[in-house]
Amino acid sequence: MTAGDVGGGEPTAAAPTPHRIVEAAGLAPASGYAHAVVAAPGRTVYLGGQIGMDASGRVAATDLVGQLDLALANLVTALRAAGGEPSHLVWMQIFVTDAAAYRAALPELGRAWRRHLGRHYVATALLEVKGLFDAEAMVEVMGMAVIPE
User: Fold this and answer.
1) Measured between alpha carbons, how far is 10 from 17 in angstroms, rounded to an integer?
2) For the chain, which ranges sit under pLDDT 50?
3) Closest Cα to residue 117, out of 135, 91, 139, 99?
4) What pLDDT sits at residue 30?
5) pLDDT given at position 7
6) Residues of 43-70 as b/e, b for ≥16 C-beta within 10 angstroms?
7) CA–CA distance, 121 with 62 (Å, rounded to integer)
8) Alpha carbons 78 and 10: distance in angstroms, whole number
9) In degrees, to the nearest 5, what angle opens at C-alpha 18 toward C-alphas 124 and 89?
10) Which listed residue, 40, 51, 89, 104, has the most CB atoms within 10 A of its CB?
């Protein structure tokens, strides 16, 4: 480990954490994300974009927090179907149609995050986009996980 390294995040499940979170010296402290993640060898799982869609294929919530909550639940469901756990996530992208609304709802969004991922913060990027494929969607999440061998 180098001087800027910090131990792995708090996993949300009993699964081993296949990564090491890195905070780079000279950058502002990471809060709710990681500057970088070093993944250990294992099986890589790429998780396609998930929105707040229910099993019937409809966007189930009309608010940003409800949509993120269900999108994260869907991402974790897909990850578990691939044999992984939330603690195996090493990278995520969050696409939103309104970054100002996302920032305004951070406390509630943080509670949704912790409900599905605990305090496991991965290398993350938030991107504001003009629109998402489903016109009713306000948020989409995608990620990558490394499942230990």
Assistant:
1) 9
2) 1-14
3) 91
4) 67
5) 34
6) eebebebbbbbeeeeebbbeebbbbbbb
7) 26
8) 21
9) 30
10) 89
Q: What is the pLDDT of residue 9?
A: 38
Position 99 scores a pLDDT of: 97
| Whole-number Cα distances in Å, 143 to 2, 21, 56, 122 | 26, 16, 23, 10
| Structure tokens, 112 | 């949704």
Q: What is the pLDDT of residue 25?
A: 75
Phi, psi of 111 (to 5 degrees): -65, -40
64 contacts 98 by C-beta, under 8 angstroms: yes
pLDDT of residue 2: 31
Asked if 147 and 88 touch (Cβ cutoff 8 Å), the reply is: yes
Rounded Cα distance, 80 and 125, in Å: 22
